[in-house]
Write a structure and sequence with these properties.
Elements: E1 10-13, H1 38-43, H2 48-55, E2 67-77, E3 85-94, E4 97-103, E5 113-116, E6 121-125, E7 127-129, H3 148-159, H4 164-180, E8 183-190, H5 199-209, E9 212-219, H6 238-252, E10 261-267, H7 275-286, E11 292-297, H8 301-311, H9 315-321, E12 329-333, H10 339-348, E13 351-354, H11 356-361, H12 369-375, E14 378-381, H13 394-409, H14 417-431, E15 448-452, H15 468-471, E16 479-482, E17 485-489, E18 492-493, H16 498-513
Parallel strand pairs: 1-5, 2-5, 2-6, 7-8, 8-9, 9-10, 10-11, 11-12, 12-13, 13-14
Antiparallel strand pairs: 2-3, 3-4, 6-15, 15-16, 16-17, 17-18
Length: about 525
């Protein structure tokens, strides 16, 4: 039995409110960055000491020794190795780390704060969103009936007008939407940086709102004049991309356990970058512990045709030639992978981020998720950008993943309800190379969410209230804790005025498109 410090200072009894282990081994040390190719040599001044500094930063978390007891949980969904679901469970947190879980009767009786769920709330790990473009909340429903390439061509000119304040506001609103839907950790792939826009803008927004974050420094370097898809006005010089990528890693990347901020590198897609940039980005990422690699891959048939025409290869072999067949890599979409691609990725530990809403909205197809899972490939979940979804609701995305997999396979075994919850939690943690989130156990980060089983939408779901989370209508979370801090309290954000944020972002969106 774990003893608590002091007496109970605050006990909350929760009723209905008024609104309805990682797949990867991290690098143990960092070597020097070899200046093997011209672009990387020009961009890089990395040394072994700098890499060690980046890897050795202290956690941006915190929380001290303050304790929290969440007791009388209807069902505690752990997602641990045994996939335990504990009736009348409890969870004890010290600072920003889980100290104990188990039946309420076996956990401490006192804490600095006690949350009594009175046998009505389901608690599960916070969900992990592995693919997004936050800025796209500014341009929802543009070309609503377009496929990928025409849709992008319609949006590039609008995005070219974005400013720093647009990135900041859109990131904060997207994060708010994700948090309200049960997401506690997100990545964002920001690959278009016109005018004064910087990755720093969204980092600031996410730090203020309190979400665990992997910022993906995206990039595009091939404009229309060189055979790429985007206009020349929104692409960057590759030496500048690599220089800024290194700056972000040096300035922000925190690979320590319970870290609130990490950096990944994300050349946008096969039709917007050079193979040289892909190689250089991989070399740069691999010189630091825990820096991931992310891109769009095999999103639709046009994507595959472009790759065959320009690179004469399928996605699996192509990524292998670029140094991207590596367990720090996760790809968005992977809709058009074949069996060989899947086998290569499964063997190498490469993950796929499934984005069912966007894939349906853009008629890209249904990803072969059942094949991926059966092959041992890691699968995560992402909402994708809000211009192709057009929302940022991760619990709804899990439901769509469940339903689309069954339609694709014409079989209820295409995906089970618990598999949908698993890819939204454990799958995401593994894709982001995190061994401290995704399941609930002693020593894990205190990221967890709660749903009220007594909502009207759950009437009659008592036979399996856990499955009800993705089978029934469910679009918001009642409670959310990130890094031990209460971010959602009875369905309301505690770190930002949501109505004010939405109003400011609406004005920015109208101005951007005018």
């Amino acid at each position: 039995m774990i003893e608590t410090r002091g007496q109970v200072k605050n006990e909350i009894h929760c009723g209905m409110h008024n609104s309805e282990v990682s797949r990867r081994e991290f690098l143990k040390g960092c070597g020097t960055l070899a200046a093997a190719t011209p672009l990387l040599a020009a961009a890089s001044s990395v040394t072994g000491a700098a890499s060690a500094h980046a890897a050795g930063k202290t956690s941006t978390g915190g929380g001290g020794d303050r304790t929290l007891l969440v007791k009388n949980i209807h069902t505690l969904v752990t997602m641990d190795e045994k996939r335990r679901e504990i009736r009348n469970g409890a969870l004890f947190v010290r600072g920003n780390v889980i100290d104990a879980i188990g039946p309420t009767s076996e956990l401490p009786k006192t804490a600095d704060e006690i949350l009594d769920f009175k046998d009505r709330y389901i608690v599960m790990p916070g969900m992990v969103n592995c693919h997004h473009h936050f800025y796209q909340v500014l341009t929802r429903v543009v070309k609503p009936d377009g496929t990928l390439f025409p849709w992008l061509k319609a949006l590039y000119p609008i995005w070219a007008n974005m400013r720093s304040s647009d990135i900041y506001l859109s990131a904060k609103l997207a994060a708010a939407e994700l948090l309200l839907s049960g997401c506690t950790t997100s990545s964002d792939h920001l690959y278009i940086l016109p005018n004064d826009c910087r990755i720093d803008d969204e980092i600031q927004a996410l730090q203020e709102i309190g979400m665990r974050f992997t910022a993906v420094r995206g990039s595009m370097s091939i404009g229309e004049s060189k055979g790429g898809l985007p206009p020349d006005s929104v692409v960057e010089e590759e030496k500048d991309i690599l220089k800024d990528s290194q700056r972000l890693i040096e300035q922000y990347h925190d690979n320590s356990r319970h870290s609130m901020l990490r950096i990944a590198l994300g050349p946008c897609s096969p039709f917007t970058i050079t193979e040289q940039l892909m190689r250089e980005s991989a070399e740069l990422a691999k010189s630091y512990a825990g820096v991931g690699l992310h891109t769009h891959l095999a999103e639709n048939r046009d994507d595959i045709k472009y790759m065959a025409r320009n690179y004469k290869m399928r996605p699996g072999p192509w990524t292998e030639t670029l140094g991207w067949l590596d367990d720090r890599v996760w790809h968005a979409h992977c809709v058009q992978l074949d069996d060989k691609d899947i086998g290569m990725f499964a063997t190498a530990g490469v993950a796929a981020c499934h984005c069912p809403a966007s894939n349906m909205r853009l008629a890209s197809g249904a990803a072969p998720i059942r094949k991926m899972l059966d092959a041992g490939m890691e699968v995560a979940l992402g909402v994708d950008g809000s211009a192709s979804n057009d929302t940022s609701n991760l619990i709804q995305e899990a439901r769509l993943a469940l339903l689309l997999a069954r339609v694709r396979e014409v079989d209820v075994k295409g995906m089970t309800a618990r598999e949908a919850l698993e890819i939204a939690t454990l799958g995401g943690a593994k894709a982001l190379s995190r061994d401290d989130i995704g399941h609930l156990a002693k020593g894990m980060s205190a990221d967890f969410i709660a749903f009220d089983t007594q909502r009207d939408a759950f009437v009659g779901s008592h036979a399996d209230p856990v499955a009800a989370l993705v089978v029934c209508h469910n679009d918001y979370v009642d409670y959310s804790f990130v890094n031990g801090k209460k971010i959602i309290d009875q369905g309301r954000l505690t770190t930002v005025d949501y109505r004010d944020l939405a109003a400011k972002t609406r004005k920015a969106a109208i101005k951007l498109s005018s």
